[in-house]
Amino acid sequence: MPTCQKEFPIGQQEEHKNSRRAFSKTLALSLVAAGSGLLLRSKLTGTELDHPRMQVASASELEVGDYKLFRYPMDEPCILVRITENEYVAYSQSCTHLMCPIHYNKENQQFVCPCHQGFFDAKDGSVISGPPPRALPRYRVSVEDGIIWVG
Prior knowledge:
alpha+beta; Rieske Iron-sulfur Protein; 4-stranded antiparallel β-sheet; 12 strands; 21% helix
């Protein structure tokens, strides 16, 4: 008899049987993995994310080139920047390399990750240089009646 059969004596008829507990555990872990995968996919694509709307600021609060930090959608750090008189952008504030917080450089209209010298274009969130593998996750921004909404 081979050593593996001595150490793991499971009959051939029983090897495909599964207890209710094992099945429930597998099902629960699969659902958690699928949900995490969907959340992670939205973080990794660098495209606009779709979440409930939230009031972030009033248009008079920010001059051109100013920014405001806020937390959205699940208490994640985000940044809103007024690029031009009528253009606002909002991104996750976490670098796509190792999640370090990015900072806005007004003079160059860039986001800078100080941890590993990653640079992102503030207009579209794309990677300019450094180790970040993808663009910053972006949120929809709209202005209605002088109020800036994200989502």
